[in-house]
Each structure stands twice: as structure tokens, then as C-alpha cells.
Design brief:
two-stranded antiparallel sheet; alpha+beta; about 70 residues
Length: about 70
């Protein structure tokens, strides 16, 4: 399974919100199913020169509402 490409050599291409197409099951330390699945979202960066601040706020708010846990980098 391949994920989102990252690194300094990658050209930014995310527009809006991209959603990974498969749920990722989480297993316990003993290998049993925990009953929890992860769904990955990738969003465009903030302060894009080609987008307005209004779009940034809407994407950020929607992502927060969709997420149980949020990682901002």
C-alpha cells in the first residue's frame, strides 16, 4: 500500500482535502483487532498564494470537524 508522497523534492499538488480510499485497521499489541480504524486526510497548506484566506479557514474548519485526532505540521 502506497501513501502520500512527502519530501523536499515533491511539488505541492494538494487542492482542497484529499481522503485516503481505504480504512486502516488498528491492532492491539497482542495482534487482535482493536475495533478502531484510521482514515487519512491530506489538506492543502495554509497561506497558498493561489487561494484566499477564506478558503484556508473553511478547509481548516472542515478538517477539524471531520477528525477525532488532528496532526498539524
Amino acid at each position: 500500500m502506497n501513501g502520500f508522497a512527502v519530501g523536499s523534492s515533491e511539488q505541492t499538488c494538494t487542492k482542497g482535502i484529499w481522503m485516503w480510499s481505504e480504512l486502516i485497521p488498528v491492532t492491539n499489541a497482542d495482534g487482535t483487532d482493536s475495533g478502531t480504524d484510521i482514515l487519512l486526510l491530506d489538506t492543502e497548506g495554509l497561506n497558498s498564494p493561489s487561494r484566499s484566506y477564506d478558503i484556508d479557514v473553511k478547509i481548516f474548519a472542515l478538517t477539524i470537524l471531520l477528525s477525532s485526532n488532528f496532526v498539524y505540521n
